[in-house]
Amino acid sequence: MNMLILMALAAGTAPDRMAEVDRQQQVIWASSAGPAAQTARAPALAALRQVGTTDDAAGMRAQALLLKWGSDRDAQAAWNWLVTRHRDDKRLAPILEGWWDGSALPDATGQLRRLAAQTLAPEVRASARLLLARRDLAEGRRAQGLAALRTLSRTAGSTTSTLMGAGDPPRLANVASAMLFQAEALSPGAPLPAITAPTIDGRRPDPADLHGRPMVLDFWATWCPPCIAALPRLKAMATANPQLRLVSVSGDDSPKTVQKWLQRKPHPGVHLWTGPSGRVSSEWLNSAYPFYVVVGGDGRIIGTATDVADVEQMVSRAIG
Predict the structure, then answer these.
(1) Quick one: 46 exposed, middle or buried, by C-beta within 10 A (0-12, 13-18, 19+)?
(2) pLDDT: is 100 or 227 the higher one?
(3) Domain that residue 216 falls in
């Protein structure tokens, strides 16, 4: 889950309960995908259900993790708890943004629409409308989604969002603009836009490294546990497919941080740096790290993803 979300929920709670949530979150992040992951996560989810009964920041954060990682039943129970108790609490906004897909909830779109109409918190209302626009795009209501994003980009005011993955929370209006960019410029079949980020040693990237072969753009940061957990699978993809190019775009505060990290843990491919608020981050990202763009050998986008498992499927299509 986005580190900004965790910071937003960390204030004002008993340290022992928050420490317990921290421990169980690490267990969940360390678990891999697949059937074995469900078994590994079961004790952590059980512990979170206990912490989630407290009506404080630790309880909210436990419910947020259950919403994202729990069973369908966990997700619906967590949603009901959060919306019943904290519908008008601005801390609900980052929880929504950490859960945006709502795949485990029946009628997720309808539940978001009702929340947007009923909440008294402008932060929650704006976040719900942002996520509804994203669902509209994902579910084929393109014109409706784009219109909503254009409205939010003009009217969201000073409300911030945790959907961008690093640095200080940006204005939600800027996130809406980034989502517009992704919907229009990063849609499947579109030519890959120019990548303006420098390499981690300050050079302009070699154009030959960014064209002419299938490629995975990996927007990541050294402080992001899900990003780090995905690196072995990305490396395995590159090993199995020598024609595949990995291009890592770091959102760390300094390129030196990335250089030092790579000295300890080498990773193949081209390494670029944009920083938490650089132009590439601001334009390309509308979600927390990691974020991936898969490109075919013809330079056209195959798709975008936030889960490395989806990247593996797209790479298999790109390689043929």
Answers:
(1) exposed
(2) 227
(3) 207-319
